[in-house]
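Incident log, structure service

09:12 report received: a user says their structure output differs between two submissions of the same chain.
09:20 pulled the input from the user's history:
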Amino acid sequence: NQFGDAISVFWQMFIPQGFVNNTTEAGSAATGLKIFPNPTTGDLSVETLAEFGTVQTIDVLTVTGKSILSVSNTRSMSIHDLQSGIYLIRVSNENGKSVFCRVVKY
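09:34 re-ran on a clean worker, output below:
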């Protein structure tokens, strides 16, 4: 269907291949951070390398890009109240750099 094709194109454009490891964590050494556990039942933690800087905000977005949850100045968050599904997590640092990761909530 056209909606599925649009989502597939979105993932390919904005989430490069090899960018996300959907087994236990999202992100990579190349991005300077990881988000875990992935998949999750609700609690997420962010671990950063020094070159990423300080985590300023963590945003949860739907696959269509709508922001549905945001926390500031923390390295963890709860998504217990969200329905099961695939979400984008945007982690931004104090300089405005953002990294996107895919996370599965079950």
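09:41 both user submissions now match this output. Likely a transient worker issue. Closing.
09:42 reviewer note: Confidence is low (pLDDT under 50) at residues 16-24. The two ends are 24 Å apart (CA to CA).
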